[in-house]
């Protein structure tokens, strides 16, 4: 089954049979992520397995003219991150195929311009991040007023 998730100027096709059967990286159109997707190029990747939260975040940021891509697994999210190069990465800690926060330091080192927002309903230990990393921690549940405060300057 293939779903198309439209946004302001980019639609993402997700082949759910690939994700649910083998947790393999979906076949991505590499050129799609290299194009400038919005007038100002603001892009967000959400790696979180909570579908309701992902949809709320997506709607919130679409209204603010961001382009938003969602991944519900760490493995798929890693591949999308490399191709999509988002301005902001929302990274959940407990994912079905791994611990997201353990990847945060390497994501920060590999993508120094990406602002990483580590989210969790639990209170895990914050990983040691590179000195130049741009990041913050937000606890679930996430309030829209907190997002307004945090992202008013973006």
**Range of strand content:** 25-35%
Q: How confident is the prediction overall: mean pLDDT?
A: 81
- What is the assembly state of the chains in this entry? single chain
> Segments where pLDDT lies below 50 for 5+ residues?
1-39
Q: Using only CA atoms, what is the Rg?
A: 15 Å
CATH fold-level assignment: Rossmann fold
Q: Which structural class should the secondary elements be placed in?
A: alpha/beta
Order of helices and strands: EEHHEHEHEEEHEEH
CATH secondary-structure class: Alpha Beta
Give the termini distance in whole angstroms. 36 Å
Question: What shape does the CA trace take?
Answer: globular
Task: Quickly give the CATH architecture.
Answer: 3-Layer(aba) Sandwich
Read across the widest sheet, the strand sequence of neighbours is: 4-3-5-8-9
The total of beta strands comes to 9
Q: Work out the helicity level.
A: 25-40%
Count of discrete structural domains: 1
- The CATH superfamily name is Response regulator
What is the helix tally? 6
The main pleated sheet reads as: 5 strands, parallel
